[in-house]
Amino acid sequence: MNTTHDRNGYPHFITSRANPLIVSTASLSEKKYRDRKGCFSFEGMKLYREAVASKVCIEHIFVREDVYEHFSDQLSPNISVVVPDFVYNKMSGEKSPEGILCVAKYIDNLHKRVKIYDNVSDKCGETDRNKNYFMVSAVRDPGNLGTIIRNANALGIDELIISADCADIYNPRTVRAAMGALFRQKITVCCDIISAVSVLRDRGYYVMAAALGPSSVSITDIDVSLRTCFLVGNEGHGLDSKIIGACSGSIIIPMRSGSESLNAAAAAAILMWESAKKHGFNE
Question: DSSP 3-state assignment of 82?
Fold first, then answer.
């Protein structure tokens, strides 16, 4: 970290907004730079603790000068950088930042990106063949996607399969909404979501699209099995007709007459709970 210098006993100190490390960190707000560097950023002591507990590879910790003394005994001095507020604000996307921002490497052991989905093996054991899968297509709002990731981790989803046109899982808003679940949840980003539906169906899973249609069945009227996988679509337009056609069938969540459709994350949580009850993840 040769672009920094010590001051007042700090492990490392940066005073310039033009410092290459500061500029590089600020650029992580954009996906193309995150992908290029294989790194993402997140803010707050809670997420820092969650990342450490999950053994996420943290490269840098930026701490605002006015809060350093409060956090110093909890941070690794080797990778900590103290900055004044005007430098911190260049990197931060928060309206009221706590004053701690981390840069971490992509979590390759949990998060995969594939063109054609083939993760379900013919040779897997019976336990693996009853894994709890959940699918998401074209959810564009990072806050919604982060909430879905948080729900998936809380409700025992073994693998979350999402389409490549969803919001980026490393978008700062996604990371913030996931509240640490991103550091633990297995996620596969699939460029061809229909291939993922086909693979699961070939392995004996019933892939049920959350979609309103003439043949849709209420979630209260179906027998959710260990091998039922639900698929939720875009916040405004739902699921593409080709995706619905590739599924085993479609289901709806009954609502009071006159109500608008549920938020994508709320609908996902209800369907995940139906799966969770069958899998008995909390026993």
Answer: strand
Is the model's pLDDT at 217 over the cut of 70?
yes
Phi and psi dihedrals of 165, rounded to 5? -90, 10
DSSP 212-236: -STT-EEGGGS---TTEEEEE-BTT
Pick from 239, 264, 258: which is nearest to 249 by CA? 239
Token output for 198: 């086909």
Q: Name residues whose C-beta falls within 8 Å of residue 214's C-beta, 6 or more positions apart in sequence.
A: none
**What integer pLDDT is reported at residue 255 of this predicted model?**
87
Structure token pair of residue 85: 């507020």
In whole angstroms, give the CA distance from residue 41 to residue 274.
Answer: 33
Q: Which two tokens stand for residue 39?
A: 């790194």
More confident of the two residues 127 and 117: 117
The pLDDT value given to residue 236 = 84
Token couple for 263 = 């938020």
- In this structure, the dihedral spanned by the alpha carbons of residues 152, 146, 217 and 208, taken in order and rounded to 10 degrees, is -60
Q: What per-residue confidence (pLDDT) applies to 282?
A: 57
The predicted model gives 33-58 an average pLDDT of 97
pLDDT bucket at 124, cuts 50 / 70 / 90 = very low
- CA 28 distance to own-chain centroid: 16
Supply the DSSP string of 183-216, one letter for each residue. GT--EEEES-HHHHHHHHHHTT-EEEEE--STT-
H-helix or E-strand spanning residue 160 = strand 159-163
Residue scoring higher pLDDT (76 or 49): 49
Whether the pLDDT of residue 244 is over 70: the answer is yes
| CB-based contact 206:248 (threshold 8 Å) | yes
Name residue, tokens 């990778």.
Answer: 79
The residue type at 246 = A
